[in-house]
Amino acid sequence: EKWDFVLVSDIHEMGSEKEIKRKKFLDELSKKGFTIKKIEDTKLFYGVRAPQHIFRKYQCLMGNPDRRLQSQSSPQGIPVTTRIRIVHFILHNTVTPDFEKLQDLMKKKVFEAAFPLHEKEELTEYLNQKWACWRGVFSQQPIEKIRCYFGEKVALYFAWLGWYTCLLGFAALFGVVTFVAGITIFSSSQVSREICEANTTIMCPLCDKCPFWVLSEACTYAKVTHMIDNEATVVFAMFMAIWATVFLELWKRQRATVVTDWDLYGWDEEEEELAMQLINNLQHEPRLYQHSYFRSTIVLLLVLLMIVVFIGIAHALVIYRVIAMAFFSQSSLSLLRERADVLAVMSGAVLHYITIVIMTKINRHVALFLCDLEKPRTLSQRENNFTMKIFTFQFFTNFSSLIYIAFFLGRINGHPGHYVRIAGRWRLEECHPSGCITDLFIQMAIIMVLKQSISNAMEYFSPWIRHKLRKRHKRPKKRSVMLGEEEEAEDPCKAQWLSNYELNEVNIFSLFNEFLEMTIQYSFTTIFVAAFPLAPLLAFLNNLFEIHLDAKKMMRLYRRMVPRKANDIGIWLQVLEAIGILAVIGNGLVIAITSDFIPVQVYKYMYSHCARENRTDVDCSTGYINHSLSVFHIQNFEPSVLPNITGREIKECRYRDYRNADDYTYTVQFWHIFAARLAFLILFEHVALCVKLIAAWYIPDVPQKVKNHLLHRKHTDLRRELSMMEYSTEV
User: Fold this and answer.
1) What are the strands, taking DSSP E only, across 363-497?
2) What region holds the Anoctamin transmembrane domain (predicted)?
């Protein structure tokens, strides 16, 4: 027997309020012609099957939109995915005499669950063996079969994820080449060599209780920095800005081809919703569009308040790094003292990841609350509103600390003798003499590795453990008679319903979670990729397994999703386009502000010996480090924080900045570099955005094949209508 849905309820006492409410709801379904089958165990299971006239009405109103799918998966009737979608809609919009819907009854514990079934059929076996398995990691996804089982929305998600992963391979290859190019200059960079040879350059203390140190002690750190921060990084950042545009434009073409094959190019979601409302209740009146400026203002203020909270969390992480730096620097362990700056960065990155995990759960509840305040008209509108809010919250949660490191670290900390302090006590961090980009590299590497290892492990093993526990604790025992009702001894549906009930519950945001995860990953892959060229490679490797991890969860660990029809990925496309623009701005700022690329170029062409005399036997960046370090006189230190100089004749120290040695005001070089940074930023962003616009124009969103197919279809339909009109006139 085929059943569209299964309702699960606890066994309530005869005549109790819950039992009466359950009976009223089932009676309403019976009045609509539904067939209901009851199986009793430790729970009550009700199989629900809709009458055929409901589906004939749907086909009449919508013009049989599933004719192709019908011929493939259900030659005798309407496709299973459409049946489930229609029955789900009717179940959730059926009103009892007490004006209660299924959702209200589930909140009152009248019903515990409602779900469609994972059927044991040929299609299920194929997906389990060819798709939801690790053997198919490098195989092409069966998108058409996924559509036949889970519906168009899920199929489009996997089509998009597969397309994204495929094109991510090219970005990963370019990133690896950029990283390898950096490795080749690991020891040959002139700037790194100068730092390693600066045995007599005394640097100012990194914290109030820290000692003076010699610049050559930072030799390894400098080599790593210039392995990341080089000319190849600029080219890679430009490439990724173009790649993001090309990826989205090619996806639009792929999406147009796919939905045209599905006969969904001109599908209207609102029309289908109205049709199902009328099928459920012929007297239904549509809910009109409404907009409240008062509610919108309240929502906007609350969103801004949340953003302030995220900025506060970023400040807390900054305070932690400052305190951790001071703590590690004063440690009795030499390893902690010598690597205090790196350990502070790494521990801060781990703490940032923990805040991401915690705030993700809080963000979801806040976003849902704000959506309820807006009172959206439809489920799609609610999803769009929720998407924009949760993505905004998650973006600030994930990137607020990265933004501080990239654009503020070492630029707002003051200078020796006049440091900016937190609570008048702790000094803000300084950049390393070779630049701040390594801090950003470490932060991104740790967060991406943790998110793609621990988070993915939890994403799979958490539902797996819950499923095993449900099977152990909720495995029903055989019952013969209860409450005076007899049960069939071995009903053929019983085992199937029980096994589906033991799976994890699916909510309306299950697919949303997967989209959000990939969108945040896309942000990491594009926005700060100039500081972490290996981000595309990590994302590519992760996605190869993510596709089949999601498939295994959907097929084996979760109840069957309610199939939903769709002809695109919805508002996520707009989110991805916004990320593409942010990627241009972010990478331009990283190269202009975080990187030392601009200061080195300014030195080469304005202050080096190459600018004064035409010589080719010496590297033009020779002398850059000495040029980029300012001089500070020891007697100008604040008396309360004067470093310990016992046994050392030190009168001055160096620090990273462009300031005069007399009054510590900015030098002319500082303003030259500032102007060059600004000019590069404007030039980079305008060139990148122009290239993006040209690429968007050059690559049509809809292939000519699809346009011609739609043109021929319109022509054929019009000719058929005209022929029928002439025939009827002759008759």
Assistant:
1) 414-415, 418-419, 421-422, 426-427, 481-482, 485-486
2) 146-710
- Cα dihedral sign, 338-339-341-343: negative
Closest CA to 501 of 127, 117, 81: 117
Q: Say what the alpha-carbon torsion angle 102, 103, 104, 107 is, to the nearest 10 degrees.
A: 120
The number of helices, as runs of H, and strands, as runs of E, in the chain is 27, 14
Please determine, for residue 240, whether its predicted confidence score (pLDDT) is greater than 60: yes
> Is the four-CA dihedral 262, 263, 266, 271 of positive or negative sign?
negative
Specify if 67 maps to a domain.
yes
User: Quick count: other Cβ atoms within 10 Å of Cβ 527?
Assistant: 29
> Which residue pairs from 72-75 have beta carbons closer than 8 angstroms and sit at least 24 positions apart in sequence?
72/144, 72/148, 73/123, 73/148
For residues 408-438, b (16+ Cβ closer than 10 Å) or e, as one string?
Answer: bbbeebebbeebeeeeeebbbbbbbbbbbbb
In a domain, 60, yes or no: yes
Tokens of 693: 């616009």
Contacts of 666 by beta carbon, 8 Å cutoff, 6+ apart: 658, 659, 660
Domain with 82, as residue range(s), is 5-117
pLDDT-derived band at 730 (thresholds 50, 70, 90) equals: low
Q: What is the DSSP letter of 651?
A: -
Using CA atoms, how far apart are residues 630 and 210, in angstroms rounded to an integer? 19
pLDDT digits (tens, 9 = 90+) for 613-645: 766 677 888 888 888 899 998 888 876 666 555
User: 452, 462, 566, 581: which is closest to 518 by C-alpha?
Assistant: 452
The total domain count for the chain is: 1
Whether 708 has a pLDDT exceeding 50, the answer reads yes
d(CA 731, CA 729): 5
- 37 backbone φψ class: left, alpha, beta (φ>0; ψ -120 to 50): beta
Q: Please give the Cα distance from 691 to 693 (Å, whole number).
A: 5
Q: CA-CA distance, 703 to 423, in Å (whole number)?
A: 61
Q: Give the burial string for 116-147 (b: 16+ CB within 10 Å, else e).
A: bbbeeeebbeebeeebbbeebeeeebbbebbb
Summarised one tens digit per residue, pLDDT across range 43-101 is 899 999 999 999 888 888 887 666 655 545 454 568 899 999 999 999 999 999 989 99
- DSSP secondary structure of 419-451: E-EETTTEEPP--BTTBSHHHHHHHHHHHHHHI
Q: Cα separation of 155 and 127, whole Å?
A: 13
**Cβ pair 451, 538 in contact under 8 A:** no
- Distance between CA atoms of 348 and 394, rounded to whole angstroms? 18
The pLDDT value given to residue 662: 87
- Please give the structure tokens belonging to residue 178: 């950029």
Q: Is the pLDDT of residue 482 over 50?
A: no
- What does pTM read for this prediction? 0.87
Quote the tokens at residue 325: 């730096």
- Say which DSSP state 558 is in: B
pLDDT reported for residue 322:
84
Residue 575 maps to a domain: no
CB-based contacts of 226: which residues, under 8 Å, 6+ apart?
182, 185, 186, 189, 191, 192, 434
CB 525, CB 539: distance < 8 Å: yes
pLDDT at 509 (0 to 100): 73
The pLDDT tens digits of the residues spanning 276-328 come to 888 888 888 888 888 888 988 999 999 999 999 999 998 899 888 888 887 88
Report CA 353 to chain centroid distance, whole Å. 14
Give the span between the Cα atoms of 383 and 577, in whole angstroms.
Answer: 18
Q: Which structure tokens are listed for 681? A: 């930023």
Identity at 165, one-letter amino acid code: T
Band (232; pLDDT cuts 50, 70, 90):
confident
